[in-house]
Amino acid sequence: MPLHRRFFLKSTGVALASFAVEPSFLIRTAFAQSTAKPGKDRPILVAIFQRGAADGISMVVPFGDKDYGAVRPQIAIAAPRNGAPDAAIDLDGFFGLHPALEPLKPIYDERGLAIVHAVGSPDNTRSHFDAQDYMESGAPGNKGVSDGWLNRYMQGTAKTDATPFRAIAMSSNMPRSLMGPAPALAMNRIQDFDVRAGGGRAGARAASDLAEEFEAMWRKANSETFDAIRMLKRANPQGFQVENGAQYPNGQYGQALLQTAQLIKADIGLEVAFLDIGGWDTHSNQGAAQGQLSTRLREFGLGIAAFYRDMGDRMRNIVVLTMTEFGRTIRQNGSGGTDHGHASALFVAGGPVKGGKVYGKWPGLAREQLFEGRDLALTTDFRDVFAEILVKHMAAPDVARVFPNYRVGQTLGIL
Questions:
Q1: Which of 151, 199, 351, 368 could form a disulfide with 180 if both were Cys (CB 3.0 to 4.6 A apart)?
Q2: Which of 80-84, 182-186, 260-264, 353-357 has the lowest mean pLDDT?
Q3: What's the rounded Cα separation, in Å, for the pair 100 and 17?
Q4: Three-state SS for 60?
Q5: What percent of the chain has pLDDT over 90?
Q6: Which residues neighbour 215 within 8 Å (Cβ) at sequence distance 6 or greater?
Q7: Are 274 and 173 in contact (CB under 8 A)?
Q8: Residues 264, 168 contacting (CB under 8 angstroms)
Q9: Where are the domains of the chain?
């Protein structure tokens, strides 16, 4: 059947878009369209991965550390001073936001945004591939774990009213975090979740007929697939407009956040959303208040701020969690950039968040305080943050299965 289906798809121009695994996975979904009641007050987690290792020292500037300026003579962000546009935005007299993250400051002031600094993986790898894999599997240093931490969360919290749209990645491929036996979907765009025919105007009628034949053939074995497509079309997420004057940044990241917001508004049972934004591997020309990093941070911050504003009162049930595989070296390199480091910073935003605070123990930037004499030392394991969100926000009964061979080290009190 798989061989025949692939041949049929290739030879007719009919394609099923954006399923991350064989569509028969929906047979395993506890989906009953007539009885499913997603509920507007279900907790939702939106996870954003900053791929490439974002520089936490420039994102959340420790201007109050006496050693900060000396280790970064060209790329240090200036301490806050009378609203200077190139200076850090003061948070608490010690830490400040990079000026490009200015859109996040009102959320922080409203106590809807918390920051965790000196956070990351206890594994000391500086490989992007390994570090991302360990963070998404939730098992640092363990290559034997096949599924992702978010998938294991879903495995342990099966729900009778779940729909096929419980977990969605806004990407062309299923991210490691959502891989596993619990059903999840990956889609670049909402409109691509469909059976569609190609061939141009001249062949439109013939392609349409083939699509109908294909649907009839497939429906016998995969009726749940078409039920899901019809459910999404009826909900019509794209009919929901951006609210409260929010303005999403252009590009794939901004569109992914916008469409995540539309899926939430459509109330089709979304519980976990995953998206990523790349471009954080700043080995050269990183810049300070302006430059390569600033450009990425501006898009990053504008996206979260737009989503927060667009969601309005719905944010009472939503938590946005950011992550990156590791940080950057404390000292800048000869190319005006930074190399692969260790600990970094992450953001947690939403109605349930006890924001307006930078969490975590600051380890210091003196040489003897650095990890291996070169990197920001780790004081908070990323799993402490993830686990708190799963337990307090998502009502996970047991995180021991989600994070194998790990005992929660500290409760930060972020939620």
A1: 151
A2: 80-84
A3: 36
A4: strand
A5: 71
A6: 195, 226
A7: no
A8: no
A9: 2-392
- Round to whole Å and give the CA distance between 219 and 160: 24
Classify 27 as helix, strand or coil. Answer: helix
Return all residues near 234 (Cβ < 8 A) that are at least 6 apart: none
Cα(141)–Cα(218) distance, integer angstroms: 42
**H-helix or E-strand containing 302?**
helix 292-311
Tokens 């200015």 label which residue? 102
d(CA 343, CA 122) in angstroms, rounded, equals: 9
Name every residue whose Cβ is closer than 8 Å to that of residue 10 and which is 6 or more positions away in sequence: none
In whole angstroms, give the CA distance from residue 60 to residue 90: 10
Q: What is the pLDDT of residue 199?
A: 45
Q: Kindly tell me the sign of the dihedral angle through the C-alpha atoms of 82, 83, 89, 90.
A: positive
CA dist., res. 408 & res. 145, Å (int): 19
How many Cβ atoms from other residues are within 10 Å of residue 3's Cβ? 7
Q: Looking at the structure, give the CATH architecture of the domain made up of residues 2-392.
A: 3-Layer(aba) Sandwich (3.40)
Angle at 359 between CA 373 and CA 256, to 5 degrees: 95
Distances (CA, A) of 289 to 74, 102, 293, 312: 10, 12, 9, 30
Please give the Cα distance from 247 to 185 (Å, whole number): 26
The whole-angstrom separation of Cα 278 and Cα 297 is 11
Would you give the distance in Å from CA 70 to the centre of its chain?
33
Q: Which two tokens stand for residue 170?
A: 């806004």
CA distances from 270 to 20, 59, 148, 165 (A): 17, 30, 18, 5
Neighbours of 214 (CB within 10 A): 19
**203-250 per-position pLDDT tens digit:** 455 556 665 666 666 555 455 666 677 777 777 677 789 999 999 999
